[in-house]
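Researcher: Go.
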Amino acid sequence: MRFKNIDIFVAIGVALLDVLFVQTPDRPLALGIILALPLILFFPGYTLTQILLHKGIATRSFLRSNHSIGVADQLILSLGLSMAITILTGFMLNTLSFGLQGESWTISLGLITTILALVTLFLRRSEKQAIVPTSRIALSLQDYLLLGLALLVVTGAIFASIVRPAQPRTAFTQFWMLPANQSAQRCAVDLGIQSFEMAPMTYYVVLTVNGVQANTWSPIALSPHEEWTQAVTLPSSNATSVSVQAELYRTNNLSTVYRNVHLTFQVSTTRSNGQVTQKCTF
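Model: Structure:
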């Protein structure tokens, strides 16, 4: 037959169209869903089904059976295998460095479909009939309803995962204080602020050492995702321990501490040749 491979060329065409579509900027979401559904739900499994049911393979495999494979059987196999291929592809992509993304998923499924389609064309090259002879299997109304319900559930799940409403993002600010990595004898800390607020914010920081105010910083104006850091050398102390506390205020509410952090250092003193050496440990 002149057009016996039209189904395979359609599968390759859909795969290429999907891959090209994800490369275009500002692509319409509705059109993307329409193009993605055949690549996710049908064509990868369909091309694999054509390979498995090819008479040269089916007669030597576990698919060998006295039962003729009909159109309905092929459709069910195509849907089931497509879902399995899509899920396995997602697991594989999730282990790679670039992760599971719409573009990587589309390209992977398109590549798998194209490879399976080319294998099918190779198997059909000298065959008058591409698959095991088929017979029509009558479907009842209940079969149609169940198949339609399955397609509706899968389509709805994919649509919901793509068009789900954006989750509200919680605004917050990170505030930290860490022991400074230095070889000096005096205690030191590194202070830091990073804003994840929804709008620019101005902050006020108070540093106390053993209950006594040691330093303040204000105003510290940060836009969303901006960061502020400060290295602070603590004043000398004869105490064996140094308690450091930093408090963060937002200037729109200076009466309430927004974030606070604290550290305690242990100070050891040694004397050698008339020199006093202090060691600060966390």
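Model: Strands lie at 172-179, 188-196, 201-209, 212-222, 227-233, 241-250, 259-272, 275-281.
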